[in-house]
UniProtKB/TrEMBL annotation:
Keyword Hydrolase: no
UniProt keyword annotation of Nucleotidyltransferase present: yes
Natural source organism: Beggiatoa alba B18LD
CDD domains, per the entry: NTP_transferase_like_1
Protein name as catalogued: Nucleoside-diphosphate-sugar pyrophosphorylase family protein
Length: 218
């Protein structure tokens, strides 16, 4: 599932008329890079949620056939945040563990690892070094177990594998996934890994420009 329902407030004015996932990175929309990488890794069943200007996303991507994918859409009248958005999409995702990618991150994480991954617990988080704009980090990684206490802390990349049971006590509505993860951590049900490769949170026009500049010099 690619999370694409955010308003992109920090990206304004770029996102006033264009949903953030359709902003261009190089010659393609940001979300197209995700789709292409997933398909190249053999992952062709994709769910995308959307809210703000979501019809533009559906018009741009269609049913996914041009990419070799099958895309199903979870439409939100208003953005339901990470937890609420995933919960609403569960009927499209099935009963098995599924991978999530935030639509506004850029990474060369080897997503071919998704295919044969065996989830131990309720969630598996890909963690990265803390960027300049988030120096305090999010979680502590002790070998393969993620928790809230301990140093050094790492930043959650927005790439994760979740078991549907993580959401079993939830109800329809707008809510963050963070409390669900924190509760699962108290039960030692969250694993993780520290990824040292390329990762960028494209949350502002400046970081989008930074990424485009870096790609243009390659």
């Amino acid at each position: 599932m690619i999370l694409a329902a955010g308003r992109g407030e920090r990206m304004r004015p770029l996102t006033d008329t264009c949903p953030k996932p359709l902003l261009k990175v190089g010659e393609k929309a940001l979300i197209e890079h995700h789709i292409t990488r997933l398909v190249n890794a053999g992952l062709t069943d994709i769910v995308i949620n959307h809210a703000w200007l979501g019809e533009q996303i559906e018009q741009a991507l269609g049913d996914g056939s041009r990419y070799g994918a099958t895309i199903a859409y979870s439409r939100e009248a208003q953005a339901l945040e990470t937890g609420g958005g995933i919960y609403q999409a569960l009927p499209l995702l099935g009963n098995a563990p599924f991978w999530i990618i935030n639509g506004d991150v850029w990474s060369d994480y080897p997503i071919e690892k998704f295919k044969n991954f065996s989830l131990q617990g309720l969630a598996h988080l890909i963690l990265v070094d803390n960027p300049e704009h988030h120096p305090q980090g999010d979680f502590y990684l002790n070998q393969s177990t993620v928790s809230t206490s301990g140093e050094p802390r790492l930043t959650f990349s927005g790439i994760a594998c979740y078991h549907p049971d993580l959401f079993k006590n939830c109800q329809q509505g707008r809510f963050s996934i963070v409390p669900l993860l924190l509760n699962a951590m108290t039960q030692h049900q969250v694993t993780g890994e520290h990824y040292h490769g390329q990762w960028l949170d494209i949350g502002t026009p400046e970081r989008l420009a930074q990424l485009n500049q870096a790609l243009s010099t390659k």
